[in-house]
Structure formats: structure tokens, C-alpha cells
Amino acid sequence: MLLEAGEHLLRSAYAVLEPDHRPSGVPGPGVLYLTNRRLVFEAPASGGVVRDLLRGRESRLVFDGSLQAVRNVSVRRARLGRAWLVVEAGARRPAFDVLDPEGWVADLARAKQSLPPPGVIVPTVIEREVVKVRCRYCGNLGNEVAGRCPTCGASF
To answer: Taking the complete model, does pTM exceed 0.90, yes or no?
Structure first.
């Protein structure tokens, strides 16, 4: 998951999305993220065993809702089994099987309270982090994103 400028992670956990809300080709388990602006659920996209081994597991964004769009968060308890975290955001109402759903409800409420009121413009500062990597062949420094040493051309 990529964070936007000024966004920071508050909580993340392994979660299982209820079968009624899963898109085709996406298994149920994934990771649920809570930031100071959004609630995001990412699940691994099933590309097949060989593709997953060669390219690594690709993830798919299944749910990405702003905290302002979240109307209600509740815990649904079944007679048998675990409690589910239910999020009402717009027309969607996904349910997640997470550990400590009551803690998620409390954290979501705190995150919603910390949001600025609608219409208030919050200035953002965009910081760029430059990471230098030392080449193991010639010893010179180069940008990590370049992938190759600017002096000798060896890959980092």
C-alpha cells in the first residue's frame, strides 16, 4: 500500500474479507490497514503458483475508503464463531474477520475524530527521501532508485 503525502499508518492486521464482498479472482485473506485518512484492504491477486514464484505475489486493492466516507463501524457477533468488523462506507458494507474487532472500532473512531472538519484546507508538506547506496565493486555512492552504479555500471 502506498501512503499519500501527510498520511501515516495507525494500524494493520491480517484479515479475511467476507465472501459476499470478494471480487472474482481474489482470495479472502489479506491485510487491513488503517491510516489517519483511509481504511484499505489489500489481498494477494491469484496469478497461479508458477507466476507467484517467478514474479512474487502481486496484491490487489479490494477496498479503499476515506475515513470521511465511513458512516458507521460495528461488530457483528455470531452465535458460534468469531466476531466480524463491519464497515459502512457509501453503498458498500464489507465485513472483515480480524483479531480484536472492538479495538479496530475504537481506533477508527479516534482516527475519524482527528480528521479536520470538511472544507478546511490543511497545508501539506511533501518530503523526498533520497537514499544513497555504496557500490560493492567500486565503492562510490549512487541513488538507490537508479539500480546501477553511475561510475562502473554495476547493479546494486
So the answer is: no
